[in-house]
Amino acid sequence: MKSSISRASVLLVIFALQACKHPLAIEGEGDIVDLNGSGHGCTLEQFQAQDGACKRNEVKGEYIVTYRAEPRPGWRFVRWHGPCPPDSDFQQCRFHIAKAAVDWWDATHPDTDIPPSRAEFQPITGETGYLLAGAPVTGVAYETPTQQGVTGEDGGFQYEEGETIIFRIGDTLLGEVNGREQVTPFELAGSAVVTGIDIYSALEDEQDPFQTVVNIAVLMQSLDRDANPDNGIQISQGVAALFQGVRLDVSQYWESFQNESVLRRAVAQANMRQLFSTAHPIVKPAAAAEHLYGSLGIAANTVGLTLLQFRNENENLARTERFRYDAGGNIIRHDDGTADAFESWQYDANGNLIRYELDAVKYENIIGGGARFAASFYYNANDNVIRSEIDGDLDGSADDVQVVTWKYDRNQNPRYVDRHNGIDGDPANPDFIGAWQYDTKGNLRLRREEFNGADCRYVHFWDYDPRGKVIRHRSGCDLVNDGPDTVETWEYDPHGNAIRHETDSPLNMIETWQYNAQGKLTRHETGFEQMGWYSLTTWRYNASGNVEQINAEWSGVRSSGRYIEFWRYGTNGNAIRRERKREDGTLDELETWQYDATGKVTRRELRDGNTLAQVETWKYPSDVAVTRTESHYIGAEGTTLYQYQATGWAHLFTHYQSEAAKIRFAYPISPWWLSYALPKTEPI
Predict the structure, then answer these.
(1) What letter would DSSP give residue 485?
(2) DSSP β-ladder status, 141-143 and 135-138
(3) Which of 44, 137, 208, 270 could be stapled to 275 by a disulfide with Cβ–Cβ 3.0 to 4.6 Å?
(4) Residue ranges of the domains in the chain?
(5) What are the pLDDT digits (tens) for 544-557?
(6) How far apart (Å, rounded) are the C-alpha atoms in residues 222 and 270?
(7) Does pLDDT of 368 surpass 60?
(8) How deeply is 298 buried, as exposed, middle or buried, from its count of CB atoms within 10 A (0-12, 13-18, 19+)?
(9) Residue 32 forms beta bridges with which residues?
């Protein structure tokens, strides 16, 4: 904490302290200890005797003191009440008030009644569990039918056997679990521990609970007081208070969570209010996942694609592609097996992409210029990109260079972007302008797009319910005079699941969802009035929560039909058979899987009707340094071999695209605003 009164005005200081007689109070059994040895503090016996050390606690001169709430044996600390600076460490209440402020208030309001700083303790009853993200997590609120509090310095929480425990940061739900000794992000998410090549598929599946594991790890580490999770994760009371009225969805796709405007606002506010001892941005998901696994002692065995080999229908080698990574797992080079065709990537010390180059004659038609292409990116101190320069032919001439610049608000959310051609393009006359505005909670409220010379200045508005869920989206060229071109509305159940979505536009679409008691989707219905299109899908689950039957039907002007799918699982819960039948009962598709003794998939077969169409096989060495996947396409396409080797985490949180979209490699991989795409507001 700063040593001068410049940290806050006299009035703000006095508002926090309320007077120069600063009473201390104790609820339960514990002591308030003065860690500075400055003569303050209050023992349980002194408080019970109404001793002046507690009842009055005279403050004279400069008030520099750090109080620590120490529970007596059999008791635990819960929280501080009353005046307590929000940047104080857990169990501590730290004051640093200049003598001038103390003297002024003592002379002006000597007899003012004031509330005490009260340390609350509760008896330790029932069972003790620990919240761990590798290291203990301090300051997370928990609640059971019989207990409530915040996790202690050791991550400890109390519960009775058989109880369900709910964990929150402010109003953001992290998850709920049955009482147990250790709770990690895996238990909060209801996710298995994912390792090796399976991490790929888990991160690509937006519904996989592993998304929640990553998001919780990102959230906890981003809110850590000193940005060093190795010594424990401490979430101060002041930081947790930033999430009052904020309901972040930790189950969403990892990429959208990383760029949540509400999360960015909370972290920015914590930095601006000096609630962290070390200022820091949101932790990158790769770093969060790597620390989580490492500190929990889990061998992640992360791998990256290093060789891609194609053989024709005669099994003759057609082409070999190779990929290279740096020590952190960032992809740095791709050679596609043809002459003079490669891509390269460069990164700064924080892992941000700073340069991308493509050199390949074969992509000339894709990039719309020469056979070479490069993009450079520049960032601010918060790792937000502020400028990109794209050179269409690497000759540096202004006619082939496109420059994009971004500006951010105080919460580090994007507020403005412009794009112009030429390295020295006219900033006053850009080819494109985009602007964003947010509400007080950080939710995106408005987005404006304007292209130079276009008649339309397209505008989007979003409205939210108290939970932060989108309930209305309006968009159009001239909302004031002509009204919106499109209006979308959403409704939700008490659990936050979307149950109805309407679009009032030329298509007039209505979409509805239904869920079972476990929150799993059981029915999805979509209708487009103007198109005469209708679709219905229903799901049925087994006792383990795995889907066992899917019924789908659709009808429209051009096509109609229906099918039914049946799923079967092995004793370990892995899918072993998927069978899809047409409405006449004939077999449409048959997919089967085989696994080794450890539960890893070793073979997959796909049949088109009764005809074998594709075979995939996986091989896993004992040292997990290399994983081989072979895809055999029955017919004229031949075989594709995928070979993986051990890498770091970084590339797992990128999107490597198909050849037809290689131009998109030029963009850093996370922020949605870099490609001018709308934020994902659809409640899936």
Answers:
(1) S
(2) unpaired
(3) 270
(4) 5-122, 126-296
(5) 889 999 999 999 86
(6) 10
(7) no
(8) middle
(9) 42, 69
